[in-house]
Write a structure and sequence with these properties.
The protein contains 14 helices and 2 strands, in the order αααααααααααββααα. The chain is globular, with a radius of gyration of 21 Å. The C terminus is likely disordered. By secondary structure, it is mainly alpha-helical. The chain has a single domain, classed as P1 Nuclease, CATH 1.10.575.10. Helix content is 56%, strand content 4%.
């Protein structure tokens, strides 16, 4: 999902950004999952991908502005509580700020890495199960529902989705926008869980099938059940996916505008270091 969203977001851009991003489309798609790969290696990376809005410990957010700044949230809830239950909305702001800085510096490598990461976090914000304590159905005996919604359904039905989006917009306040996206995702959590539970309870016959995925044999929901669940969701996955593409293209565009609309054609690779860098500088001086 992440790879497709970043790639489609490049296609959704307008000139001159599209012209600069287009040659890097394969890289941005491939590295769309880098943020997930860092979860086990980088301290505090995992909570950057979610926020448990239904956690009792975050009820303190109700006492502050509906889209609180991180400082306000820390004052209301305590920083440890925020990191314990996720910082996704603020992380989108932080990632966006890194992209603005990279564009302002015209640092090609930093731009690409910041754009890939920002695209990942924005896509996460559009997934309902990234906004709840019951993120994998583990609290209600619905284990595995996260990958079902985020991976199994898009793989089976994504080829038929209509994913064309309107031109990107400049977001007035990325922080408030991130909260709006996350609250819309959270509003869908009950449907995601309830439809799955009802279909499992009323299903007759086999519910799972063994499928080969790479070198691993996995248990997956049978296609007929997936058809029923996807139908019950009534286009939810497609809509959230489409909104993700538009959102990523919009925050990339916003970062460029906030950076002063720099000419990214002049963006350079950072000067290489070490022996290779010395050899390249020597050759270029001849």
């Amino acid at each position: 999902m992440h790879r497709h969203i970043n790639g489609a977001a490049v296609d959704a851009l307008e000139e001159p950004l599209r012209g600069w991003f287009a040659p890097h489309r394969p890289w941005l798609s491939e590295h769309a999952v880098d943020a997930d790969k860092r979860k086990r290696m980088v301290e505090r990376e995992a909570p950057r991908h979610y926020v448990d809005l239904d956690a009792p410990a975050l009820a303190c957010l109700d006492s502050v502005w509906r889209s609180p700044w991180f400082r306000q949230a820390v004052e209301a809830c305590g920083e440890d509580s925020l990191w314990a239950y996720g910082v996704l909305p603020w992380n989108i702001e932080w990632a966006h700020a890194r992209l603005v800085e990279a564009m302002d510096a015209r640092d090609r490598e930093a731009i690409l890495r910041a754009a890939a990461d920002l695209g990942h976090y924005v896509a996460d914000a559009h997934v309902p199960l990234h906004t709840t304590l019951n993120y994998n159905g583990q609290l209600t005996g619905q284990d595995g529902i996260h990958s079902l919604w985020e991976t199994r359904l898009p793989e089976r039905y994504g080829g038929g989705y209509f994913l064309a989006v309107a031109p990107p917009v400049v977001v007035e306040d990325v922080g408030q926008w991130a909260w709006k996206v996350i609250r819309a995702s959270h509003a869908a959590v009950d449907s995601v869980l309830e439809f799955e539970r009802e279909l499992v309870e009323g299903w007759e016959g086999d519910l799972v099938v063994r499928e080969q995925r790479g070198r691993v044999m996995q248990l997956q929901r049978v296609p007929a059940w997936c058809d029923a669940y996807h139908g019950a969701l009534d286009g939810m996955v497609e809509r959230r996916w489409r909104h993700s593409i538009h959102g990523v293209a919009s925050v990339w565009t916003t970062a460029w505008v906030e950076a002063g609309q720099p000419d990214l054609e002049s963006a350079l690779q950072p000067e290489p270091k070490g022996l290779f860098g010395w050899w390249r500088r020597l050759k270029s001086s001849r």
